[in-house]
Amino acid sequence: MDVDKRESQILDNEFQFLYHEHEEEDDHHDEDDEDEYKDDETDEIKSESNESSKTIISSQDSASIIESSDTGISKSSKKIETSDSQIDIPEEVIPEDAGLRPGSWILFPKLPEDRGDGVKKFINLTEELKLPPIGQVPQMLKTNEINLKSYCLDPRTVKIICEALNYNTTVKILNLQDNWLTTDACYHLNDLLINNNVITWIILSGCRIGVQGAKELETGISSAESLEYLDISRCDLDDEGLRYISIGVYCSPSIKIVNLSNNNLSEDCANALQKMIIQTDTLSELNLSWNFLNSEDFWRTFVVGLLQNVTLKNLNVSWNGLDEECLPFLAEYLSSDPNLFILNLRDNRFKSVEKIAEALIKNTKLEIIELGNNPTEANEVLAFVEVLTNVTPTSQLRLIDLENMWTNKEVLVLIDEIKKKLTSVDITLGGILSNYKIIGPDPRKIFLKRANFEAMKPKKKKFKRNFGQFVMSLQDIIVTRDAFKSSIKNAKVKLSESLITEIMNAFEIREDAIDQSALKKFYLEEYPETSQLPPLT
After folding, report:
1. CA distances in angstroms from 512 to 240, 447, 485, 495, listed in the order given
2. What count of Cα atoms within 13 Å lies in the side-chain half-sphere of residue 411?
3. pLDDT value, residue 62
4. Helices (H), strands (E): how many in the chain?
5. Distance CA 462, CA 493 (A)
6. Directed axis angle between helix 354-362 and helix 378-388, to 10°?
């Protein structure tokens, strides 16, 4: 106990000594300029003596000091009478990094040494796998787009491109349209979407990835932080493949535009599309054209998702064979005044679109409605436009597309009435069907003019005849067709059989009855000078 007390007293004396030494140094700083000069000389002498009398603390001593600082009791009886400026701690005594440096990389990750445009990696991997090089790719890696449309890519080449793009910071558009991508290629694309946070557009139109390819891409689509545009049309997804893509879409944090056209989709995908539309909070444009989404059951399910969605701005369901069974659901959706700006219903099978017009009257946000190339009858088109005359000035309609849809002349008045309310609206029509008469050349003039020519056509003068003289020689009676032919033959007027037949048809008043007086009268009206000619001999 006496030893411990003595050690504690020694340490107290040491700390008091150090404390007073620092106090004296502070007092020196507060003295006048004259004292500072003397102090400087004194400090120089002290520093020389301190350097020669520095106390080297061993690792054992340092351990004792550290331990004593923790417990307040020193286990060493060695008295250290020195200031802190005289302590020189060897480097081996300094503890290693406490972990701050590795921890800092959690907040500020260290970039890979090979991060860049990926050109070197692409070239090295191409040589390593002994693949035919694509000379344009290294240059494309330095731009914002890689366009390999219709290149017939080897799956290994797709892998190399994805490896090169993993850390690329310039390419934002990857266009692989019309390349037949295997499941393995889709695996590497999925890995790229997970790792790359720069690419915003992926175009896989016509790549025929099928169900397995869609399954591989699900995670990548849902994880891609910057992906905004996904074109996966003509990829043979079918209903099963769509389920994987739909999960990726509604889990995506950034996707805005999705093209699912021409993928053999049927009513069995209704639940998957409904869930996708309800749960997404970024999707603004959806293309479902060129599929088979035309059943009543599909639209009964799908419209539930449409009614709950608040982000969709553009919906394309053209070329789906939609007919009157779908109209009530479409009308319900449009009447709810959703945030939709564009609705494309072109090239379907609507014979009546009046319910669409009734829904448009209640809608204040839709700007473009496309109904062109539907087999809608003329009276139904007129009814559609007539209902739209009740549209309110608050409507945002800018384009009503009725291309290749025909109606009668009354529609023009109705269109003018709509344009008075909506001054910026444009209504396109196929044309007008009725209320006008086609005026063309009189066939009788053509036939008689041709007869004048053929009668004077023979090269020999003795065979030439003036057809007008022949007409004036006819009696003002009604004759049979055979009698009329005989009179032409007797007058030795050379006319073709087809022309004689057409002349008889033009002046036939009833079956097998030719009015020669009408022929003479019409001919004189066209060629009045004929009356001055001498009679035919």
Report:
1. 72, 19, 12, 20
2. 23
3. 44
4. 21, 16
5. 11
6. 10
The DSSP code for 54 is: P
Q: Where are the alpha helices (DSSP H) in 153-230?
A: 155-165, 183-195, 210-223
Cβ contacts of 301 within 8 Å, gap of 6 or more: 270, 271, 274
Residue 46 pLDDT: 43
Quick one: tokens of 471?
């007409």
SS3 162: helix
Name the nearest CA neighbour of 361 among 317, 399, 391, 398.
Answer: 391
* Token pair recorded at residue 223: 């994880």
For residues 79 and 193, give the distance between their C-alpha atoms in angstroms, rounded to a whole number. Answer: 68
Q: Is 342 helix (H, G, I), strand (E, B) or coil?
A: strand
pLDDT of the residue at 434: 67
453, two tokens: 């020519």
Inform me whether the pLDDT recorded for 26 exceeds 70: no
Alpha-carbon gap, residue 499 to 447, rounded angstroms: 7
CB-count exposure of residue 468 (10 Å: 0-12, 13-18, 19+): buried
**Cβ atoms within 10 Å of 52's Cβ, excluding its own:** 7
- pLDDT category, 268, cuts 50, 70, 90? very high
Residues 6 or more apart in contact with residue 264 via CB below 8 angstroms: 236, 237, 238, 239, 291, 292
> What is the pTM assigned to this prediction?
0.63
Place of tokens 């004759």: 479
Q: Is 446 helix (H, G, I), strand (E, B) or coil?
A: helix
User: Which amino acid, residue 458?
Assistant: P
DSSP sequence for 70-119: HHS--S--------GGGEE--GGGSPPP-SHHHHHHHHSPPPPTT-SSSH
Tokens of 30: 């507060």
Separation CA 246–CA 297 (nearest Å): 19
For 313, phi then psi, to 5°, come to -115, -25
Tokens of 224: 């891609």
As a residue count, the chain comes to 537
**Of residues 406 and 115, which shows the higher confidence score?**
406
Residue 290, phi-psi category: left (phi > 0), alpha (psi -120 to 50), beta (remainder): left
Residue pair 175/149 in contact (Cβ under 8 Å)? The answer is yes
Rounded to an integer, the average pLDDT of 46-73 is 44
pLDDT value at residue 90: 53
222-231, 293-302, 457-466: lowest mean pLDDT where? Answer: 457-466
Quick one: tokens of 264? 């053999």
> What are the percentages of helix, strand and coil residues in the chain, rounded to 5?
50, 10, 40
At 139, list the tokens: 């240059």
CA distance 199 to 17: 68
Report the distance separating Cα 483 and Cα 180, nearest Å.
77
